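Section 3.1: Structural characterization of target chains.
Under the original work plan, the team committed to producing a structural model for every single-chain target entering the pipeline before any wet-lab resources were allocated. The record below documents one such target. The sequence was received from the expression subgroup and is listed exactly as submitted; it comprises 196 residues.
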Amino acid sequence: MAYEAKNFESLLGTKGLSDTLLKNHFTLYQGYVTNTNKVADALGAMAKEGKTASPEYAELKRRFGWEWNGMRLHELYFGNMVKGGKPIDKNTNLYKKIVADFGSYENWEKDFKATGAMRGIGWVILYYDFHEERLFNTWINEHDVGHLCGASPMLVMDVFEHAYMVDYGLKKADYIEAFFKAIDWTIDPKFDSMLG
């Protein structure tokens, strides 16, 4: 079954992120969906042909993680934004967990933004480790490298240049501020209950 690109056009008109920037970013995301399907199809065909020991198969297997994570991380990124943003509810278990693990919401926010402002390209992810019941702000350098195994992404911010340069040039910190104003902190009650 092929993956289908999700429609995030409801984000058009988001303050701080121009429609040009967003449309370019949506096109990039759609490319990840297309390439995820192409790589999956090619791997399936090679497996049927008995070519699983070939260097081409091995290279496509490695490439699949890049394309799939590029697709999924963009879905999480766009999915955790809404025009006008929605503030975090201080009564949620997520908010309480942020305060417990970082000392305050402000400490968490400062650390998340500092992680995003680091030199380089990649992603910033607020992960929840269900095993140890801890939150982490994590830098992901490439789509397929550096993820915390078994941890669930709670908030994803794209800090590749394509996410901000059209609007902000090299002013990544200004983009991060715009992103924070667009965060949708609406939390699924079922998920929030797992954090309590």
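Helices lie at 19-48, 55-79, 93-102, 105-117, 165-168, 172-182, 189-195.
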